[in-house]
Write a sequence for this structure.
């Protein structure tokens, strides 16, 4: 049975307004009877041992699994800036290892102006190999998060290529249902409209067999049903590859509905989809 977790970025605006902290987000996950949490690195108040232990105990006492720490890196950088990005990933691998969290999230590369995707690719592979090897040495997996908005990998084929080029058992895939090129939430075209030149559902199908975690993006949930992404189409794709892992609620529709109202709606909706599709 697929288990639901709460991505802490679902409370991005509430957190940034100082109305909730990471412990409060953990409380929300427990309130909505979720099974786990995904912790974004910017939501940690500290990396001191006492604070990390407080977060760990809060999850344990509420019966919540800590799925991964989301780190926002950019391996499109060069020189000293690239080394800073690699070191950032290693820092959070150390935090994850200390807390007993099995995985950290990794992006790929944003393409610098004047450079092509193919020119940036070798640097992305080399940086990722170093981070994956470090993760392996600490017993922490590195999960590749497909992304768009000028970032690679942005298609299912690119995800598979990068996984294969890095070729490390500790480098795996976090599948985001809304972040492939052509998605209504992440295309270069009009927001809210699927870009017909890209088959983003095909990208989900391509990379789903390699996924160890699924981020279920929610953009428009005021009606009680996600309006931009077709989960009647997405759920069978995930089910048909035999996926039985974690699925995160990731709300990014703050321009439609505030987070305290949206998150419980998203929780109810995804639970109903999982039940309908017997997942």
């Amino acid at each position: 049975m697929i288990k639901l977790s709460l991505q802490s970025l679902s409370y991005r605006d509430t957190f940034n307004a100082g109305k909730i902290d990471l412990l409060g987000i953990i409380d929300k996950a427990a309130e909505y009877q979720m099974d786990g949490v995904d912790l974004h690195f910017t939501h940690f108040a500290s990396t001191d041992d006492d604070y990390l232990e407080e977060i760990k105990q809060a999850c344990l006492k509420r019966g919540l699994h800590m799925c991964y720490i989301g780190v926002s890196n950019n391996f499109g950088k060069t020189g000293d800036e690239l080394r800073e990005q690699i070191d950032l990933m290693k820092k959070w691998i150390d935090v994850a290892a200390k807390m007993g969290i099995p995985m950290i999230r990794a992006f790929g590369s944003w393409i610098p102006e004047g450079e092509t995707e193919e020119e940036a690719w070798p640097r992305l592979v080399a940086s990722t190999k170093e981070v994956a090897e470090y993760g392996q040495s600490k017993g922490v997996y590195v999960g590749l998060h497909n992304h768009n908005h000028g970032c690679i990998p942005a298609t299912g084929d690119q995800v598979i290529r990068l996984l294969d080029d890095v070729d490390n058992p500790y480098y795996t895939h976090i599948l985001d249902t809304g972040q492939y090129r052509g998605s209504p939430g992440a295309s270069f075209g009009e927001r809210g409209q699927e870009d017909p030149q890209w088959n983003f559902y095909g990208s989900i199908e391509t990379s789903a067999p390699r996924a160890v975690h699924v981020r279920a993006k929610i953009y428009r949930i005021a009606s009680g049903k996600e309006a931009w992404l077709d989960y009647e189409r997405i759920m069978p794709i995930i089910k048909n590859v035999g996926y039985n892992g974690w699925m995160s609620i990731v709300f990014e529709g703050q321009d439609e509905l505030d987070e305290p109202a949206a998150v419980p709606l998203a929780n109810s909706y995804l639970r109903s989809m999982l039940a309908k599709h017997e997942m």
